[in-house]
Amino acid sequence: MVATSPNDAFVAFEHVQKSYDGVSLVVKDLNLSIGKGEFLTMLGPSGSGKTTCLMMLAGFETATHGRIMLDGTNINEVPPHKRGIGMVFQNYALFPHMTVGENLSFPLEVRGMSKSDREAKVKRALDMVQMYSFINRRPAQLSGGQQQRIALARALVFDPSLVLMDEPLGALDKQLREHMQFEIKHLHESLGITVVYVTHDQGEALTMSDRVAVFNDGRIQQLATPSDLYERPDNSFVAQFIGENNKLPGTIEELNGDKALVRLATGELIDATAVNIKEKGQQTLVSIRPERVEFKPEMMPAGAHTIDAEVIEVIYMGDILRAVLRVAGSNDFVMKMRNTLSQTRLTAGQKIKVGWHPQDARALDPM
Amino acid sequence: MVDVTSSAPDLLRTADGRPLKAALAAAQRKAKWRAFFLVLPLLAFVVLTFIVPILKMLERSVNHDGFSSNAPAMVAWFNANPATADIPEEAYAALVTDLKQMQKDKTAGAAGTRINYTVPGTISVFKSAARAAEKMTPPYKDALIASNKMWADPLVWVAMRNASSAYTSDFYMVSADLKRDAADNLVRVEDNQRIYVYLFAKTFVLSIVITVACLLLAFPIAHLLAVLPMAKSNLLMILVLLPFWTSLLVRTSSWIAILQEQGIINDLMVWIGAYGEDGRIRMIYNQTGTIIVMPHILLPFMVLPLYSVMRVIPPSYARAARSLGATSWTTFRRIYLPQTLPGIAAGSLLVFILAVGYYITPALVGGADGQLISNLISFHMNKANWSMAAALAAILLAAVLILYWLYDRLIGIDRLKLG
Ligand SMILES: Nc1ncnc2c1ncn2[C@@H]1O[C@H](COP(=O)(O)OP(=O)(O)OP(=O)(O)O)[C@@H](O)[C@H]1O
Ligand SMILES: [Mg+2]
User: A96 to chain B: nearest residue by CA?
Assistant: First the structure.
């Protein structure tokens, strides 16, 4: 499913650059291959160039430099209506003067399809999103979630093999969003389409995607599966952007393969896995997920280094307990504990020792 | 639980037992009064300067007492006797009595004017008869007919009978190019006297042409205004509004400089050899002048409503249509154009209504055949033919109201966007 070389890629960006104003680059040397049937998510902070990439793929913006390939052919010069790419917009963009049925029938009409074929396809697409009974309504008479489904059905009704979605769930509330995530994922699997999905909700990216491309400042910072992205971030931007993260600055004391010993600014030694560290003595930022921090010695690997911590506060969050600790001079070190019957209840002011598995502490180059 | 929803709603009561509706009305009454007092000055202003004059005008269009108040004997006789083809001596006697009084009061002109609307040429007949009335001796019938044959004309008697009441539909009749025959039936006036219906028709046709021209010119401008980046669209907006800030006379005279026979365009065409000195085209002081200049004057009224509608159409609709496989032309026709309809309708309505009632530009550049109905209204006003002007204006007002009604039926007045 995942394209390994650009040659068998269904969609490929090759050295794509984009500038709107001729002064600054919004997309800087983008290389990205997407396999057929893949669900790829572009994730990144606002203004990082995600929509721009999607618009270039859809044909609404031209690449300033580089090639965009679709199914082996260069589509740089192909106008948008000939690309056959389905698209779901953030504000749905359902035509307000047409009914739901007319909205869905539109792409089929412009393709010159006969009336009976159109009706059959519209019905099938609406059934797919369980909205057939709304066929005669106008978009303004639908709720946000219903409009979302219609937009989805409209993007799929003409059987495109590639569908682009630009923050399609951004306007929905949390429950509906989670429900629609599931439905989109389900449609993706049952139809075998390729999806390029844009979001800045990392939870959405992690739950839905085959692979996630993390964008920042016009570049892909990391392109990986959700678990790799979460557990093995390549650099400190990704580590901070995906999930919650503790950062401890220090210098490399010892380097043995990817095993590193880091001396923190306050003098303590900790274990870490070197990710993009080249030599001893280098400055580093060690990142540890809050849920991988332990305070019970029996949970830590033998011989692990521990450091002193003082509990500042414990926040009850239902499924978890979240402790804010003072560690190595910083007051925002977070530890998450499962809220079980046998869980030790920490209290503010308590002195403990924390440690972790060396694999969970990743020594990254400071940005 | 008591089933409240299925019982009559007037059973709903507040906690202290008062009916809910009464409680609500009481609570809102104070706010209503306050709102009323706030708009009172404006209301008074509108009533005084707009509604009262319009009602006055409507009243004038059906009321003219020039004859009825100055010929009491005639009024009495008409009231006492039914219409006959043969007018008896006693009627002529009443007429002479009235004419004598008119001569004393110097009101023969006023009475003649009223009859003159429906039977042209009667003012002078009334005036001379009033001068001669003192010396007339019975039988008055022969004496009057001897002084002027018109006194035997049944049309004059039909006209006087109709004028014996101050309230009349005669002015609307004249506006529709109709007149009464000797038997008091409505018939069309002679071909060479039909001016009003023709002018109404021409006004409407020219207004449609002007509206269409405005629409064709304004649509691309409004679209540009809506899609250009802020700085450029502001500049363009200033260019569109510039005519608003320039005196109407200045704008119209600049057109005269451009269009007249010795003007810029003709000079240019002669210079490049499109036609010779003798082929200079008349583009002003005729209907062409009206058609060229009016759209320029009215263009902003089309641009602004269009712009206000286009500005809020998100570009994502067009993008969605394109991504669904529509060519740019199909996208325009099926997606963009229908969404601009409220703007098109509002702009067209506005421009059409303004054009139908426009006066100054046709007067300046329209020449003889570029005049519209308002120019004729102004003509009657200058001649103090208030009732005639009022009737024509009332017809214009009715036409405009019908247009509003049609607009409301077809588009909905609540969708009217004027900028
Ligand atoms: N039409 C445009 N003209 C000029 N600059 C633009 C245009 N569209 C986007 N940009 C700029 O390009 C950069 C990237 O924008 P883009 O819309 O791709 O961001 P994004 O990643 O989609 O952000 P978001 O998550 O907020 O949607 C931004 O700095 C933006 O200001
Ligand atoms: Mg975006």
Answer: B339
